[in-house]
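Incident log, support desk, overnight shift.

02:14 A customer reports that sequence design results differ from what the structure should imply. Their input is reproduced verbatim below. On-call engineer (initials T.W.) acknowledged and began investigating.
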């Protein structure tokens, strides 16, 4: 059993790996614009190697903020249903061809799943999520209010932890006391 080489920084975090054809950034006059690459998806990065046995990647990029989508427009031949793209605004896009349409779909699904997982680690700023948080806070508040009213009906003694209010306006002056104090 031969161990697959893995980059040190991502050791043990491989989510998917396999051979894909990667389109060259600049088509060559002398060779194919598609090159077979051993591709590895980790929890943070997408790496590609010359082969399964290569120790150093030919390239890598952080997968966060990328989008994955099937794209049959990439190729015009019989393999067009096997194609997908990785896109990120302001960054290089990558185009791949998988061995089969099902394998292309699996790569896209794995990447989308990972991206959803990565985005869930960030602080939510979506309006829907804020509304959910507000509803949860209201429920907690209602629970506290109902438990407070139950406590108050059972025990009318003042809570020693609550600070006493100070000021003249909270005391009631009784008619007999008025004469005594003057």
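02:41 Re-run completed on a clean worker. Output:
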């Amino acid at each position: 059993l031969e161990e697959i080489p893995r980059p040190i920084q991502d050791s043990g975090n491989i989510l998917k790996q396999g051979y894909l054809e990667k389109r060259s950034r600049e088509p060559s006059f002398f060779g194919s614009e598609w090159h077979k690459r051993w591709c590895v998806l980790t929890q943070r990065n997408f790496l590609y190697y010359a082969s399964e046995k290569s120790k150093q990647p030919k390239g890598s990029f952080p997968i966060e903020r990328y989008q994955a989508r099937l794209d049959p427009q990439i190729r015009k031949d019989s393999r067009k249903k096997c194609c997908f793209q990785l896109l990120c605004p302001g960054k290089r896009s990558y185009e791949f061809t998988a061995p089969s349409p099902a394998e292309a779909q699996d790569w896209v699904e794995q990447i989308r799943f990972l991206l959803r997982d990565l985005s869930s680690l960030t602080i939510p700023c979506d309006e829907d999520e804020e509304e959910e948080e507000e509803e949860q806070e209201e429920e907690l508040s209602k629970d506290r209010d109902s438990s407070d009213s139950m406590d108050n009906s059972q025990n009318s003694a003042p809570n020693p932890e609550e600070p006493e209010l100070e000021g003249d306006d909270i005391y009631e002056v009784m008619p007999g006391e008025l004469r005594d104090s003057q």
